[in-house]
Design brief:
mainly alpha
Length: 356
């Protein structure tokens, strides 16, 4: 079989043919059609035309097998992701066509595109806005050169001491929609408000981790499914009010159980019953699920509440970091909100007394 023949002995699919004034090619690679003149206009130069056509064919397969997307694909992703430059990108996408990859667009091609698409009356700033900016935005996004925009979604909603009292009263006398005869939700709420632990850490506490005599609870750092990191194992010191609200705790096994007395495994998939019942208590307490800023009150919000309350009464940042189990002061500050000057006095009025 010759170099320019396929398996059936016929000319290769990229084999050039003479059309009017030049040698041309017309073939498909992975559904994309490549059809144009080789630029060779001498009927006797078929060998040169073959080299050109074969080079285009090889480049087409390299493009098809490349992990890099085409500019069209990259532009579609950019518009879907950011919702920007849709109108400006239409002529740019048409200019580059269906097959050109993002890594094939070099500074020279960018300049060519800018010249080709700019209208005569456009000033330099308009050319930049209409062509250069959207074009480079797509390339940078596709090639990983666009810095990731991080939206700080830190929780800001916490409970005031007065709101917490309403939630506690609802847990003491739960509504008919919540079957909690042993007031296990009350134990959880009191523990989270008084300790700053996460719900996952709470569900891992065992009877042997609790020292009622000293008011301390050990938080494990190696419990499977609790989402712990190396710095989280720590000792917590709960205020007396939290112990009073929790009352008697199990003497064996896990301390905090579901309202039906079952263990809650903090694997990120279970525990939804407790969460649903928390929201029923929230409703009974007259606390809106979403505040004026659109932020929800969730079970995890109680960790933010503790950080703010503890700071208002103790004011020791190092203790805050140690008790909260954070890696640094910056992370602790994300949890600690700016309390009002009277927050400490209001907490004492409701029986909360946090100790260093």
């Amino acid at each position: 079989m010759g170099k320019y023949e396929n398996i059936n002995g016929s000319p290769a699919c990229w084999h050039p043919f003479w059309k009017e004034t030049s040698w041309c090619y017309d073939f498909y690679v992975e559904g994309h059609r490549y059809r144009r003149s080789t630029g060779v206009c001498d009927p006797s130069k078929i060998k040169i035309a073959k080299l050109v056509a074969e080079g285009v064919y090889d480049a087409a397969w390299e493009r098809a097998l490349s992990p890099r997307p085409t500019f069209r694909e990259a532009a579609q992703l950019y518009v879907a992701e950011f919702g920007a430059h849709e109108e400006e990108l239409r002529p740019i996408v048409a200019y580059f066509g269906d097959n050109l990859r993002v890594d094939e667009i070099d500074p020279f091609l960018i300049k060519q595109c800018k010249v080709a698409l700019s209208k005569p009356h456009w000033k330099a700033g308009t050319k930049r806005r209409q062509v250069s900016v959207p074009l480079k935005a797509v390339l940078n996004n596709a090639l990983g050169l666009r810095p990731e925009v991080h939206e700080d979604d830190v929780r800001k909603r916490i409970l005031t001491p007065e709101e917490a009292e309403r939630l506690i009263r609802a847990a003491v006398s739960p509504p008919e929609t919540v079957r909690d005869p042993h007031r296990r939700l009350l134990k959880m709420i009191a523990f989270l408000l008084g300790s700053g632990a996460t719900p996952g850490e709470m569900f891992c506490v065992r009877a042997e981790d609790v020292n009622r005599q000293t008011g301390e609870v050990w938080i494990r750092g190696d419990e499977v499914g609790a989402g712990k990191t190396a710095y989280r194992p720590r000792m917590l010191l709960l205020p007396e009010k939290a112990w009073d609200l929790m009352g008697d705790l199990p003497s064996t096994g896990r301390v905090f159980l579901s309202t039906s007395g079952k263990e809650v495994i903090p694997d990120g998939r279970r525990g939804s019953t407790v969460i649903r019942q928390f929201h029923k208590l929230r409703e009974a307490a007259g606390l809106p699920e979403v505040d004026a800023n659109g932020e929800k009150l969730v079970f995890y919000s109680l960790r933010h509440v503790w950080a703010t309350w503890f700071s208002a009464m103790v004011g020791d940042q190092d203790r805050l970091i140690d008790r909260g189990g954070w890696s640094d002061a910056e992370m602790a500050r994300r949890y600690r909100k700016y309390p009002t000057a009277d927050l400490g006095d209001r907490l004492r009025a409701h029986g909360w007394e946090f100790k260093p």
